[in-house]
Amino acid sequence: MNSLCAALRLARTEQVGPRTWLRLVTQYGTPAAALDALPGLPARGRTQPVIPPLDSITREIDATLAMGGQFLTLLDADYPPLLRHIPDAPPVLSVLGNIACLRKPGIGIVGARNASAHGLRLAESLATELSDSGLTIISGLARGIDAAAHKGALYRQGLTIAAIAGGLDCPYPPQNAALQDHIAQMGAVVTEAPLGTAPQGRHFPRRNRLIAGLALGCVVVEAAPHSGTLITARMAADYGREVFAVPGSPLDPRCRGSNDLLRKGAILTERAADILPHIALFDPEQAVAEQHGTKSTPDLFTPLLPSAPR
Question: pLDDT tens for residues 115-131?
Fold first, then answer.
């Protein structure tokens, strides 16, 4: 408990992001030692880091455990291996459900909130096929394509992971609260946000990197230009993961971003058979060795730089 308190307290310190957390722990050996050294370090700008009081961290831990949640830190052996190797890996994850799901091979499926009926059906059936093939379905619990992907995985009791932007006690959107509960029973819900965090726009890119970092590849089903869905796809490409895109009508603005991904080299996807040959269906620990620092990914995003959160 003491080591978790120190790790979480350092992660909740203002001005300490994921990269700084890892640098400090590497430099000083433990989160507790990094916390002790932090007040004496040069301030960034004119502001000294604000370390949260120990009792607030203890309350967060107790409340999370009371609702059936767990914590994983970068120092834990059970931390998701693919996520561990991204440059801005979250120092601490809060998880509802089965943490073993986070270590299984998975595929991200993301897309528009205001998806078309065809897009919703395709996302759901694709998730069911991929789940039947042994992949965990990873998405963001949003309306539209995300929710359809989760439901497709759950259709035949498959595994699915919901990466969320807020706290475990703040389902978003509220109408997906029952779906979040179902996912926690059949898979896992994961976040790096503290309890009580209501999702805001600035939180969603951080959520998107969880989807990209946990997955062996990312499938885009409908995405407008400059959408947050493209942020997830760009992150996946930056992390050396495969990017897949479902073609759509050029007359539908919801498909212009995903069609542009195809022009830039994403793998055209209409069914699971278009994905499976490109995904390693083995322990992600092995995938790390092949993907980390060795994979060459086409530049899908030179003309498209997404800026809005999903």
Answer: 999 999 999 999 999 99
